[in-house]
Specification:
34% helix, 21% strand
């Protein structure tokens, strides 16, 4: 008999032996009135024994004493917080007389407050403009912080019918108020 035929027969014989003899879990043959049947017991799978709980070493942090770190605030939640903060800001009232608020994309730390050119530049002196911007910034920042956020950048610009900004009068960020050259120049001629 050739080697390949012999190895093929051995392989078939081994497979047949596994099928008839079971998978090593044991088998038994019972004779009944209708003939003989073979019961095959399959091996059972058991989980490894659980290790006993370990007591923490003295001085080591335990899960009870170290709370898990807080997950970062998702951007959607952040945008909602800024939107809520900006919703209650005053319009057409002193000291800044804001006519329009513009946020870009999702609400975030940049707030563009649009004011009337005549009222801001002609009816207020530079020191009054700076104080009005500071007052509005502090009001907006308090609302932003009440919503759980910390950053705010206020930009004061001239009101116009588009979102494009041509004339920026002042910025406020990190507690600092800066008038631009146009914002400190005064009433245009």
């Amino acid at each position: 008999m050739s080697g390949s035929l012999r190895s093929g027969l051995l392989l078939w014989g081994a497979l047949l032996g596994l099928l008839v003899g079971g998978c090593g879990g044991g088998s038994s043959t019972h004779t009944t009135a209708g003939g003989s049947t073979t019961d095959v017991t399959l091996p059972t799978v058991t989980a490894p024994a659980a290790s006993p709980p370990r007591s923490p070493r003295p001085g080591s942090p335990t899960t009870a004493s170290a709370p898990p770190p807080a997950p970062p605030v998702p951007p959607v939640t952040r945008a909602v917080a800024y939107k809520r903060a900006y919703n209650g800001l005053p319009f057409h009232r002193p000291p800044l007389y804001v006519t329009q608020i513009v946020t870009f994309g999702r609400s975030g730390p940049l707030l563009d407050a649009r004011v009337g050119e005549r009222r801001f530049l002609c009816e207020m002196r530079a020191a009054e403009r700076r104080a009005a911007v500071r007052s509005y910034y502090e009001l907006a920042l308090a609302r932003v912080r009440a919503e759980g956020q910390t950053r705010l950048r206020l930009r004061v610009s001239r009101v116009q019918p588009t979102v494009f900004i041509k004339h920026v009068y002042a910025t406020a960020e990190n507690g600092r108020v800066t008038l631009t050259a146009e914002g400190s120049a005064g009433c245009p001629g």
